[in-house]
Every structure is written in structure tokens, then in C-alpha cells.
């Protein structure tokens, strides 16, 4: 195994072009586990830790350009207002030590259906900024980024430079079910974002289908219900029947499996519960009720 | 109403005044800071110049004939120094085992479980060794797998071990049953006729892993005399030695063993792991060989807690007195015997719990299957039974309309009670009192998650995963109590050896304590130093590293080391004290008549009379001399259980703990937060109160783990392990660990040194059923298996 240590982003792109099977490594919280378990023996490891700009972020008017290696701990600390859903998701990642190392770029690169960031990115609306030495930068909408179990839309010569995530224009929520209270891979997870500017609700589901997905039918149902009832203007409480139907449709969007972490039936059930609860919390927050609960770091 | 507690019996310290750093004080552990700061040298940190790295090739299937093994490609890999298979074993002794030598050093003709060692490789780099192992070609012809009682005893079932000659074989009804122990007392069938209420239940206990911190590891160094020196993390050096030497074809004195840093054990290091293979590779190559398992291999590298199916029938009269208990406990021993027979003995003899029942009909057995081998783990057979009988006690209380604690207290055993084995409990058994104490503790406040800032999710089920802000959350409270034996039982010669020397170093008297006791994290070395200070009146104590240059200390298991090796150290100290006083009399007897007439004590570095008069400094007495004594020490003998009736004084001592669990369950998502696990335990005498607290809290958390998350999942079709990693075998983190208030009783057992009672296991028993009872109370569900998973609480299993 060769260890490549590019000093700059350009060098990194050149190295990736030269060695398309090279596996990028930043925090190493996924890659090193796979290597230690001998699940993976890449010919080359491409170390991105010398490239400072990957750990920086820029906050624009409409979106945040989040460097691929910005650690979860910093997202939690510094981006709670701009990216509340992702900040909540970051809270649920493993342990403080791992949150100090791991970043969203790794989650996207691995593209595991259980990656904690995905439901938040799907709900907020995000674009993956991929770059290659040959073709420059392209933006891949996160909805089309996940192409299969642990597969994504990157070309072999591309690296993830950043993720552009829409700044929150309304309340966002994120919940993850694990079978212990910390340091746990998701049995399933759910992200929800209210977008008052476009009068839409977006969702993200993790660990309950071969890839992270949105519950599009549920979103459409809820968007119509909210529009028709004038809820965005009135801020009225959403009828329990509508919330229930939304939850049912979210559960129906799942295509889960039985595995050592949980049964398919449980995952479907739990996504329904999480959809209902996160919608209630987010809507309550939208109505000007109490603060969003994010827990402590 | 609960009976008032037995009167506390003050414990007399055997000699002298309370010594600084002596027994009863919470002296700090020498390894504590090193472990917390990551500087402690574990066995995995061993290093030797020129050493090679060993690696084991393990079977990829659970049950198969080995058609062929081709090691040529492995041997051809540069850097590889040796590849061993069964055919390379040097003597006719090619198996080992704690009691029954049924475990092949390397597989011969057959593999019987997933992950069984087939070949051993030594190479100059661990990665090379792993790659070489991957190049070994093993052709398997798969056999049907035996996975449970019905497949084990079905007509025509494949035998896991053919041609058994062990001493249990003649008494079992099927060769796939390793050992069976009935215990029959009174007439349970007749007594059932007196019962106003009868409850029945079938219970399932999942396979728990010890999940110790330090994976199996050791270093074997060949020696000039043709022998080998093994540095190893184990629970019992001399038991390892007895199994290793014959396979190597060496006399025991040519196999030297030194304890390396042990990262926890919990029973998982009672059996050998890589000891023999490392020695074989070292002797073959003439080079030091180190083997370290990674966590994945560790899951295959040690036995686990027996999964069990338990069937119970309990009866009681309307006024809440037990009439009878019938039970059948089927333990899955997996492919090799390990400690299964003794686990059966415990499960049977402790099968009805700490209750007075005159009419009992108990049967416990262990199966041979193709599942992972199971053996010793903290609680050792008593854990599985406690989970089931405590569920039954709650069921009965409910049927009778009685408070579950009061119902238990009405039936609680006490000093003088007779167990189903006929053994009379001849030391304090404060079962009712322990229950009273946990019940009397203040309850944790309700709805602790509520704050002015909204819900604090850390206080809720799901924690930071933010799954509820209080929705669906219901509190439940549950109680349980258990009984565990202390020490090795059933007639085993359970002795320990201590060597104690007293000498003067730099003008100060120093005691040197040498035992072969495995310090696995329990704090034994701390306690030995405390005992030496108390018995010899010195401040400075040196604890020698544990090795086989001193006699056996027995196993660091069965809650026995403070009792047995502590007892051996105390005994050796007392003998040293006599010798020191003899020297004193010889040197100074003419100076003061008290040397001849008074009772003399050693206190604060001096010889004093029982009246407190100082006769001489120990440094003066020992000037130019030293005293050293090595002695074996035994507790009271025990007897085997009768094979048909289970009668016999099988156990040395009993240990009791009770728990109250307070849980909050998200009933919609099936997530459990254990809010508090209060424990009361009788420890006889707390030699080191802080260590006692640590044992009780640790045991409590290990019991919590198997209540709500810990389980090795074995595929029922292939018998392969599905979750051999800490990613998918979950153990509690600090965020899963509740507040654990502990109430320690010290009711002396006059048969034991200082009146102490073994501490380490009892809290592991009652923790699990208390949590389950609390979850049942919160959900109203029956919950007949542990661990309970979200699926079981939401009807989505």
C-alpha cells in the first residue's frame, strides 16, 4: 500500500488522476476501520490532511460551502444556526474523539446508507462539489449522489472538495435510532427541514433503504396539505390525521433489510415514529413555540 | 413486612492496631493511573528483539471434515519462518481443556465451530503472517450443524464428539449432552397440589461476551535449556502450565510462565487461547514469537457466556409462600467442553435462587453443539438462572396481588436455611435485608430531562440521537436479588499459595509478597499489600510479579481470589510473624520479661505488647536476618453433588446482592434508558471499600449490558458468528451507565479470612432481571428473553 501525501489540492487531483484506485483519507474514521478489518486493501492511500482549505467553510447568502474535511465537532459548534439539521446529525456521530476527526466528505465518499450526515443533507438540500484535474469542478445534487449500497456518483479521478448546503430558512430536525445512547451506527435515521421560503418540506431517510433517500411521496402529500390549508401563513397546528399520513408515507418510502442491527419491520416502524415527532417539533418551532432542542455537546 | 436485618457482627482484625494502608482502607491501585493515562504495559505491548509474529488460521465454516490442508504457498512467502498444522505437533498430547481435554491445539480431521484454529504461522511481520495464513488452502467437506437441543438430540443427529471417554459420558442420555445435573429434594409434584397459584415460563438468555479490553496476547521466548518462557495474560498461570507442558513434550519446570499485563478477563481467560501455539512456534523457529489477536479474532478466541433456554414452574400458596419449583435449564456449551460441567453444577444448585423451597425438581444440562464454545463468565451459570427465577417471582407476586419485594422477603433464605442441595447456609444470608435496603433508597426524580431550555435529550432514551423529547416515555421500576457461590465447588481442591518474606532494606522493615495470582484488574495486588501491612505492621510492601516460580494461586475467578489467595497471604504473614517474634525473643528476650509473657504484636514497624509497650524495632530484630515462608492455604473442603439427586455440600460460601432498577422506556421506539441501578450487597468485610464499590458497579453494568444490548448473534442455519466486532456487539458506554448508588453490608462470615465474602460476581446476577422487571413494568410486556431489543418492545421482531 502506497501512502500519497499531496501538499496542495492541485497535487491531490493530479495524484487521483494518476492513481484512480487511490482511496482518499482525511479523518480516517471509515477508511481505517475498513483497513483494520481487512475489508479493504487499497493500492494507494491519498492523504488529504495537508490540504488546509478542506477544513474551512464559507458562509454565503444562500448556502454554506463546507470543506469536505471540516470535522463534525466544528459543525456542531459553529454552524448550528446555518445548518441546524446537520449540526444535530453531527451530535449523533460516534464519540467526541471521532467527531474531532471525521467530516462530511468521508460520509459522502463512503456513501454507506448508515452515514449520519446523509438524511440532514437530503433534507436541507445540498450539492456535492466534485473536482477532477481533467474536467474541473462539477456540482452533483445530493439527491442523485447516492447510486447504490456504498456507491456514489463520483468518477474515479474525482475528489470531493466541499459540500454546498442551503442555509436554513426554517426549522430543521434530525433523529437517529441506535441501540445504545452513544457510539452507535444508525439502525435508522430521519432528517426533516421546513423551507418556508419555498413552502416546502424536505426529508431524508438513513439506513432504511440501499441508499439514503428522500420520502418524496410523503413530502408531496405534506406540501399539498400545508399549501391547501394555508398552514404556512396561519401557522396553525397541523391536523393529527395529516401528520399520521405523512408518517405512514415516510415509513412506506423505506426499503429496509433485516440485519444484526435491526429488523426491516422495526426500521419501517421507527421511521414512521421519527417522521411524526420531527415534524411536530419542527412545526412547533416554526409556529414560534419553544426553541429547537439540540442537546448539549 | 421485611424481617429486621441480622445483627452486624464486628470483624476483629487479627493482630495489631489498624495499620496505615492496611485492610479496610481504600488504598489506591498501583495500576490505576497508568491504565487511565494509557501507559500501562499490557500483554499486547510485549516486545523482544528478533521476535517473530504468530498468526492463526481459523475455520471459515462451523462444522466440516478437513479433506486437505496445503501450506506450501504460505511457506513460500518470503518472511515466513514456520507453518504448523496438526501433523506438526510434537507429542501424542494434542488436545487441551480445563477439565476435559477435548480441544485440539490445531484442528484434526474436523472443525467443530466457526473460527476454530487450523494452522499457525510465524513470520517476521504480523502482516506477512496474516497473508501467509490466507495462502493456506484448506478443503472442507461441510457437515450438518448442531445448533440447539432439538438438533443435538434428534434421531440420527451427527455427534459433535464421537467416541467420548470423559467421565460424564456414561451418565448422559445422548452423546451430544456434555453433562447433566439433576437436583431433587422433597416431592415437587406432590407439593404442586398444595399450590393456590402456579406460574410457568420459558426464558431465553442470549450469548454474552466478556468484552475485556485487552485482546488475547503473549510472547513465547525459547530458552537455552530447550525450554520456553511464556509471558502471558491469563487468569491462572498454573492451570495454563498444566495444559501447555504435555503438548510441548516438556516437563513443567522447563515451561516458565510470567504474568503479563492483563486487560480484563471476566472468565474469558480461564481457557487457553494462543499459549500453546506461540510456544510451539517459538520452539520450532528458535526465535521469540508474539501473538496478538485483533478484536475480530478475539471474538473467536475465547469462550462466551452460555446462552440458555430455561423452563420454570413455580407454585405458591395464597399467603405468598412458595410451594415448589420445577425447572429445566439447557445451556449451549458449543463445540468444546471448557468449563461447561461446572457451569451446569452452578446453574442447577443455584437454580431456584435465594429462596426457601422444600420441594424442588431441577435439571440443568449443557449441550455439545457447533456453536461457539461457551464457558466461564462472571456469574457462571447463576446469571442465566437468576434472570429466569426472578421473572417467575414477579409473575407469582402479580398473580397473588403481592408487592414483588414483600413476596420475595416472605420466601427469602437466611442463615440456617437449607438449599436444594441439602447444604445448610451457615453464615449470614441477609436476602430480605438487602431487598429492604434497595427499596428504601430514595427514588430518582421523575422527568429529569425537563429544563427551562426544553428537553435535555441526554436524560432521555436515545440520548443525543434526539429521538424523543418526552413523547412515549414511561418509567418502570423493578427489583431482583440473586445468590452466587464463592470459590471452586463440588470437591475441587481449591487452594492457593503465598510466599512472604520480611527483611530490612535501607534500615526499614519491608514485607515482600510473592504469589502466582493473576491480577486481571480486580485489585488483588492492592489487597495483598494491605493484608501484609495489617499482619506484619510494616509500611513498605513489595509485591513480586506473578509467575510460576511460586506455587499455584488458583484461578482469578469465582469471586475467590481475595478469599483464597488473600487467605494464603494472611496465613503466610502470620507464620512469618511467629518467626520474627522467635528471632526477637532470641535476640532481645533477656532485656524485657514481656518477650516471654505477653501477647506480642507487630505494629508500625515495631514489636509491641498487647498492652501497647514497645519492645523493639523490627529493623533491629531483623538486622542481618530475613524470614521467608511459602505455604499453601485451603478453605473448607466441598463435596461433589450426587449425580442423581444433586445432594451434597457443594459450595464454600454464598454471596448475595439485590438491585432496584429504574428505567425510562420510549414505548413507541422501544428504546430504554436505565436511569438508576441501586444495589445492596453483603461483602462480609470490605478489605478495600473503593475496590468493592468498583466491583459492584462494574458487575452491575455488565448485567445491564446483557439486559438491553449485549449479544453475540449466531446464524441458526450456518452456526457462524454474525457480529464479531465492537461495531455490532454493543457494550454500554458511559452514556448508557446509570447512577449506581451502592449500600454495602459487612456481616462477617466467620469461616472466611477477616469475615470477607467474595464480591465480584453477585452484582452481575441481579442487575439483569431488575432491568427486565423495570422494562416489563413500563411496557406491560412479558419479555421472556434477554437482551431485550427495540423490536421486542414494539412488536416488530
UniProtKB/TrEMBL annotation, chain A:
Gene3D superfamilies: 3.30.465.10, CO dehydrogenase flavoprotein, C-terminal domain, Uridine Diphospho-n-acetylenolpyruvylglucosamine Reductase, domain 2. The keyword Oxidoreductase applies. Residues 1-170 form the FAD-binding PCMH-type domain. The keyword Flavoprotein applies. SUPFAM superfamilies: CO dehydrogenase flavoprotein C-terminal domain-like, FAD-binding/transporter-associated domain-like. Keywords: FAD, Flavoprotein, Oxidoreductase. It holds the Pfam family CO_deh_flav_C. PROSITE patterns: FAD_PCMH. GO terms for molecular function: FAD binding; oxidoreductase activity. PANTHER family: XANTHINE DEHYDROGENASE SUBUNIT C-RELATED. This is Xanthine dehydrogenase family protein subunit M. It comes from Streptomyces griseoluteus.
TrEMBL record, chain B:
GO terms for molecular function: iron ion binding; oxidoreductase activity. This is Xanthine dehydrogenase subunit D. Residues 1-24 are annotated as: Disordered. Residues 37-144 form the Aldehyde oxidase/xanthine dehydrogenase a/b hammerhead domain. Pfam families: Ald_Xan_dh_C, MoCoBD_1, MoCoBD_2. SUPFAM superfamilies: CO dehydrogenase molybdoprotein N-domain-like, Molybdenum cofactor-binding domain. InterPro entries: Ald_Oxase/Xan_DH_a/b (IPR000674), Ald_Oxase/Xan_DH_a/b_sf (IPR036856), Ald_Oxase/xanthine_DH-like (IPR016208), AldOxase/xan_DH_MoCoBD1 (IPR008274), AldOxase/xan_DH_MoCoBD2 (IPR046867), AldOxase/xan_DH_Mopterin-bd_sf (IPR037165).
Amino acid at each position: 500500500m502506497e501512502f500519497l501525501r499531496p501538499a496542495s489540492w492541485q497535487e491531490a487531483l493530479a495524484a487521483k488522476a494518476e492513481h484512480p484506485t487511490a482511496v482518499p483519507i482525511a479523518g480516517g474514521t471509515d477508511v481505517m476501520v475498513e483497513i483494520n478489518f481487512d475489508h479493504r486493501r487499497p493500492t494507494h492511500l491519498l492523504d488529504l490532511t495537508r490540504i488546509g482549505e478542506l477544513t474551512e467553510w464559507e458562509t454565503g447568502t444562500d448556502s454554506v460551502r463546507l470543506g469536505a474535511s471540516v470535522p463534525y465537532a466544528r459543525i456542531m459548534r459553529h454552524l448550528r444556526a446555518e445548518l441546524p439539521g446537520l449540526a444535530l446529525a453531527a451530535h449523533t456521530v460516534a464519540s467526541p474523539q471521532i467527531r474531532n476527526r471525521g467530516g462530511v466528505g468521508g460520509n459522502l465518499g463512503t456513501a454507506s446508507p448508515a452515514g449520519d450526515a446523509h438524511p440532514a443533507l437530503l433534507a436541507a438540500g445540498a450539492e456535492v462539489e466534485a473536482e477532477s484535474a481533467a474536467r474541473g469542478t462539477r456540482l452533483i445534487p445530493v439527491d442523485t449522489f447516492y447510486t447504490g449500497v456504498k456507491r456514489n456518483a463520483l468518477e474515479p479521478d474525482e475528489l470531493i472538495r466541499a459540500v454546498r448546503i442551503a442555509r436554513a430558512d426554517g426549522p430543521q430536525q434530525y433523529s437517529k435510532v441506535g441501540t445504545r445512547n452513544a457510539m452507535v451506527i444508525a439502525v435508522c435515521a430521519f432528517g426533516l427541514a421546513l423551507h418556508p421560503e419555498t413552502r416546502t418540506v424536505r426529508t431524508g431517510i438513513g439506513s432504511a433503504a440501499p441508499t439514503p433517500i428522500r420520502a418524496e411521496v410523503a413530502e408531496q402529500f405534506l406540501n399539498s396539505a400545508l399549501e391547501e390549508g394555508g398552514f404556512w401563513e396561519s401557522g396553525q397546528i397541523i391536523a393529527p390525521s395529516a401528520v399520521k399520513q405523512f408518517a405512514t408515507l415516510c415509513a412506506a418510502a423505506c426499503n429496509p433489510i433485516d440485519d444484526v442491527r435491526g429488523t426491516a419491520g422495526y426500521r419501517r416502524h421507527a421511521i414512521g415514529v421519527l417522521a411524526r415527532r420531527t415534524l411536530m417539533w419542527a412545526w412547533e418551532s416554526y409556529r414560534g413555540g419553544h426553541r429547537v432542542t439540540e442537546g448539549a455537546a | 413486612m421485611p424481617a429486621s436485618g441480622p445483627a452486624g457482627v464486628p470483624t476483629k482484625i487479627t493482630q495489631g492496631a489498624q495499620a496505615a494502608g492496611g485492610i479496610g482502607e481504600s488504598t489506591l491501585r498501583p495500576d490505576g493511573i497508568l491504565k487511565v493515562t494509557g501507559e500501562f504495559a499490557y500483554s499486547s505491548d510485549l516486545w523482544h528483539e528478533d521476535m517473530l509474529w504468530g498468526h492463526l488460521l481459523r475455520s471459515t465454516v462451523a462444522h466440516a471434515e478437513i479433506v486437505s490442508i496445503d501450506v506450501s504457498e504460505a511457506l513460500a512467502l518470503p518472511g515466513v519462518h514456520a507453518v504448523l498444522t496438526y501433523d506438526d505437533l510434537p507429542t501424542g498430547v494434542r488436545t487441551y481443556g480445563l477439565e476435559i481435554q477435548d480441544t485440539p491445539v490445531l484442528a484434526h480431521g474436523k472443525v467443530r465451530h466457526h473460527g476454530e484454529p487450523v494452522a499457525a504461522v510465524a513470520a517476521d511481520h504480523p502482516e506477512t503472517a496474516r497473508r501467509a495464513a490466507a495462502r493456506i488452502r484448506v478443503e472442507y467437506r461441510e457437515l450438518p450443524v448442531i445448533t440447539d437441543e432439538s438438533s443435538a438430540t434428534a434421531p440420527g443427529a451427527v455427534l459433535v464428539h464421537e467416541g467420548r471417554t470423559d467421565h460424564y459420558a456414561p451418565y448422559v442420555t445422548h452423546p451430544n449432552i456434555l453433562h447433566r445435573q439433576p437436583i431433587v429434594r422433597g416431592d415437587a409434584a406432590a407439593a404442586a397440589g398444595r399450590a393456590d397459584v402456579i406460574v410457568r415460563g420459558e426464558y431465553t438468555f442470549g450469548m454474552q461476551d466478556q468484552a475485556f479490553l485487552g485482546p488475547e496476547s503473549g510472547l513465547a521466548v525459547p530458552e537455552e535449556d530447550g525450554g520456553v518462557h511464556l509471558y502471558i495474560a491469563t487468569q491462572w498461570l498454573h492451570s495454563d502450565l498444566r495444559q501447555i507442558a504435555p503438548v510441548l513434550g516438556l516437563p513443567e519446570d522447563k515451561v516458565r510462565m510470567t504474568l503479563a499485563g492483563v486487560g480484563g478477563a471476566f472468565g474469558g481467560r480461564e481457557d487457553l487461547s494462543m499459549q500453546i501455539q506461540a510456544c510451539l512456534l517459538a520452539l520450532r523457529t528458535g526465535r521469540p514469537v508474539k501473538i496478538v489477536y485483533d478484536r475480530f479474532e478475539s471474538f473467536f478466541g475465547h469462550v462466551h457466556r452460555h446462552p440458555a433456554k430455561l423452563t420454570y414452574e413455580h407454585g405458591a400458596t395464597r399467603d405468598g409462600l412458595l410451594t415448589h419449583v420445577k425447572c429445566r435449564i439447557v445451556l449451549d456449551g458449543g463445540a468444546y467442553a471448557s468449563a461447561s460441567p461446572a457451569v451446569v453444577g452452578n446453574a442447577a444448585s443455584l437454580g431456584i435462587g435465594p429462596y426457601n423451597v422444600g420441594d424442588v425438581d431441577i435439571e440443568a444440562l449443557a449441550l455439545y453443539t457447533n456453536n461457539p464454545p461457551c464457558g466461564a463468565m462472571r456469574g457462571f451459570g447463576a446469571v442465566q438462572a437468576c434472570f429466569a427465577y426472578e421473572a417467575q417471582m414477579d409473575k407469582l407476586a402479580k398473580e397473588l396481588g403481592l408487592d414483588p419485594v414483600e413476596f420475595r422477603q416472605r420466601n427469602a433464605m437466611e442463615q440456617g436455611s437449607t438449599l436444594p442441595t441439602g447444604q445448610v447456609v451457615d453464615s449470614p444470608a441477609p436476602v430480605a435485608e438487602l431487598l429492604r435496603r434497595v427499596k428504601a433508597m430514595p427514588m430518582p426524580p421523575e422527568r429529569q430531562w425537563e429544563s427551562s431550555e426544553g428537553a435535555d435529550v441526554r436524560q432521555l432514551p436515545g440520548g443525543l440521537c434526539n429521538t424523543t423529547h418526552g413523547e412515549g416515555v414511561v418509567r418502570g421500576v423493578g427489583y431482583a436479588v440473586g445468590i452466587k457461590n464463592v470459590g471452586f465447588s463440588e470437591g475441587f481442591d481449591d487452594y492457593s499459595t503465598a510466599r512472604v518474606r520480611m527483611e530490612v532494606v535501607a534500615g526499614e522493615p519491608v514485607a515482600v509478597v510473592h504469589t502466582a495470582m493473576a491480577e486481571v484488574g480486580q485489585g488483588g495486588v492492592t489487597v495483598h499489600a494491605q493484608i501484609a501491612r495489617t499482619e506484619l505492621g510494616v509500611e513498605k510492601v513489595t509485591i513480586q510479579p506473578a509467575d510460576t516460580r511460586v506455587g499455584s494461586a488458583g484461578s482469578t475467578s469465582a469471586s475467590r481470589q481475595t478469599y483464597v489467595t488473600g487467605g494464603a497471604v494472611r496465613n503466610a504473614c502470620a507464620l512469618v510473624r511467629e518467626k520474627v517474634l522467635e528471632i526477637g525473643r532470641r535476640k532481645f528476650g533477656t532485656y524485657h520479661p514481656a518477650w516471654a509473657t505477653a501477647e506480642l504484636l507487630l505494629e508500625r514497624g515495631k514489636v509491641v505488647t498487647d498492652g501497647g509497650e514497645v519492645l523493639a524495632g523490627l529493623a533491629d530484630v531483623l538486622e542481618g536476618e530475613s524470614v521467608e515462608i511459602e505455604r499453601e492455604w485451603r478453605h473448607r473442603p466441598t463435596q461433589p453433588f450426587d449425580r442423581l439427586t444433586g445432594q451434597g455440600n457443594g459450595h464454600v460460601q454464598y454471596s448475595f446482592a439485590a438491585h432496584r432498577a429504574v428505567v425510562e422506556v420510549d414505548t413507541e421506539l422501544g428504546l430504554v434508558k436505565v436511569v438508576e441501578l441501586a444495589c445492596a450487597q453483603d461483602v462480609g468485610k470490605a478489605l478495600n471499600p473503593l475496590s468493592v464499590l468498583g466491583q459492584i458497579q462494574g458487575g452491575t453494568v455488565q448485567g445491564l449490558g446483557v439486559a438491553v444490548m449485549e449479544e453475540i448473534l449466531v446464524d441458526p442455519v450456518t452456526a457462524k458468528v454474525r457480529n464479531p466486532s465492537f461495531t455490532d456487539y454493543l457494550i454500554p458506554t458511559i452514556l448508557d451507565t446509570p447512577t449506581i448508588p451502592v449500600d454495602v453490608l459487612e456481616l462477617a462470615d466467620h469461616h472466611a479470612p477477616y469475615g470477607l465474602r467474595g464480591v465480584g460476581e453477585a452484582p452481575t446476577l441481579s442487575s439483569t432481571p431488575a432491568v427486565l422487571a423495570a422494562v416489563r413494568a413500563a411496557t406491560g410486556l412479558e419479555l421472556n428473553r434477554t437482551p431485550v431489543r427495540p423490536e421486542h418492545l414494539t412488536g416488530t421482531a
